[in-house]
Fold this sequence. Notes:
The protein is of the alpha/beta class. It is built from 14 helices and 15 strands. The longest helix has 19 residues, at 382-400.
Amino acid sequence: MTSSAKGSRRDFIRRSAFTSAGLLAFPNLVPASALGLDGTVAPSNRIALGAVGFNMGMTNLRNLMGVRGVEIVALCDVDTQMLAKGVAEAPQAKTYRDWREMFAAEKLDAVTAALPDHSHAAFSIWALNRGVDVYGEKPLAHHHAESLAIVEAAHRNGRVWQTGSWQRSVKNFRHAVELVRNGRIGKIQKVEVGVPQGLTNTKNYKSENRGTAGHPPSQLDYDLWMGPAESRPYHPKESHYFWRYNLYWGTGQVGNWFTHHGDIALWGLDLDKPNRGPLEIRTTASYVKDPDGSWDVPAEFTIDADLPGGIELKTSTKMREGTCWYGEKGWIYVNRGKTEASDPKILNSVIGDGEWHAPGNTEHWRDFIECVRTRESTVAHVEAAHSAFTIGALGLISMRLNNRKLRWNPDNQKVIDDSEADALRTRRWRAGWTS
């Protein structure tokens, strides 16, 4: 990272709503071992890694275990059945149910976590404030102010961050972004992002081993699972995986899928930076209520975002999944396993030595570990994750306010002239979870 890049990021944090408004109060905690040091891990040394969450996190654990020099020293999950899955992969590691105890007991270089959205910020900031590099899942957080706080904590503590937006390390996504960034379809006018429809009461729900309303299964420590969120009664339709369809815990397909395909869209526009948009958000949403009242995110939605340069970004559950950029000279579409263009010859274009090339490599988890060693920025850096999540978070706020149009100031990271909407960027946490 160049010194000018570091400076611009510091400037962004200095201007942000997090520092100016104090939306979340996280003390500036730097471990004594880091004082006077740059935090570099020598290439010849092992990387002591902790892993948290094994419902959705097994892929991360297995891939990071396969990187040279990585040693799994600690495993943590609030569900003993899930924890057992991690132990089967790394039987030598110590086990924990509370990640706060893990950080207190272990000397970790890095950590990977796959947690429900509502716990992303509490965990991430706890780790970053203790000098630990983080491989964290998307979406970056549950609320916008939490996401901004993660960015600030990563910078304040000089930590490496990699988001699980692994499409950035897949060859066809990287090539599509390179084609767009290098002008193969001219100036971009519009981008479309298609995401899957959300869960509705017409889709199957598997209830086995999920407990009954008010009674979590015996293997689950529900109090720990709630983490920083204020207490609320247990419901099986809000536990493993299905939490994402309740706004108290999750962010629906906005956080689940837009943060994948929308991230690629912004990367292709060189707008994957917090102070480069959006400028305005408009939404439509269709709510299909669950009979039990648990799933409350829109099953169908559209988010229109006005971006700098007169570019419109449209996200919808009614378009084919993936990302499509429309330029003056044609279009390029990319999705998992597929790349198309208005003229097939565009896809055969070679990116020259003097042109922009996607950073990183095609091994997403190795990219993280390499950056832990070199202290360079990862391909899925924290600013990119925050930029994509900002559009999604504002979209959800708009939907909650009956599809209210929102204007956004990217410099101070606030909703313009709408205190009600701006207040929805954050929420209170329970005592004991603020690092």
